[in-house]
Each structure stands twice: as structure tokens, then as C-alpha cells.
Amino acid sequence: MKTHEAIDRRSLEMARRIAAKIDDDPLRAGLAHARRVCSRWVAKGNVPAREWMTILSRDWPEIRGILLDDSEEGKRLRQNDPFCGILTPAERWEIYREFRRDEAR
User: Fold this and answer.
1) Distances in whole angstroms, Cα of residue 61 to Cα of each of 23, 69, 77
2) Which of 31, 36, 44, 99 has the fewest beta carbons closer than 10 A?
3) How far is CA 74 from CA 52, 55, 104, in A?
4) Are 30 and 21 in contact (CB under 8 A)?
5) How many domains does the chain have?
6) Burial class (CB in 10 A: 0-12, 13-18, 19+), 67
7) What pLDDT, in 10s, does the model give residues 30-85?
8) Residue 90 belongs to domain spanning
9) Dihedral sign computed on CA atoms, order 24, 59, 48, 44
10) DSSP state of 68
11) pTM for the complete prediction?
């Protein structure tokens, strides 16, 4: 059975890979995508998205730090982050498989 701690670790790993993809792209297309997603969410009344909208108005290094923050606040923010769609389905499933293997040990 997955614990909250295991889910948080997996979420942090996904955030690390998302940040790496954005870091590797000089155009920061993933960041622009997250801003569009967040704007749609805010327009639909998603309250947590408002907090992310404020965060996404900052520079990438600061956003990156917030996304990768391992504190309770960072964990809370990652539960509703707008970076969905940055990793491909194959990349996401690889992370799920890695964590499933780790849980089996």
C-alpha cells in the first residue's frame, strides 16, 4: 500500500524531471505551458490555481525552487501544480515503474 510519504517522494521525482526538461529548453516552453494551464484553471474557479498563478509570475529559478521544495509547503503545492503535460506519458510511467520496483524491495 502506498503511503503519503511514498506518494510525496514520487511527486518530487516527477517535479525534478519536469524542472530538468524546462532547464534544458532555452525557450522554457514547459513553463509557458504551465502558465496557460494555470490560467485555464483560474478561469474555471480553481482556487489553488490562484496561488500558482502568483508563483508563475516569478522568474524561473524561483519557480524551480518552489517546485522542488521538499518542505511541507512544497509538498502541498505539488499536489495542485499546473505542470501536467510536461512529461510524456512514457516518462510518467517510467517514474511509476521505478517507484513500484522500489516499493517491492
Assistant:
1) 9, 12, 16
2) 44
3) 12, 12, 27
4) yes
5) 1
6) buried
7) 999 999 999 999 999 998 899 999 999 999 999 999 999 999 999 999 999 999 99
8) 4-104
9) negative
10) T
11) 0.91
Vertex 11 angle, CA 7 and 13, to 5°: 120
* Dist CA 12 CA 64 (whole Å): 12
Burial class (CB within 10 angstroms; exposed 0-12, middle 13-18, buried 19+) of 7: middle
Contacts 24+ apart (CB under 8 A), 43-46: 46/80
- Nearest residue to 17 via CA among 25, 71, 53, 77: 25
Write out the three cell numbers for 18: 519536469
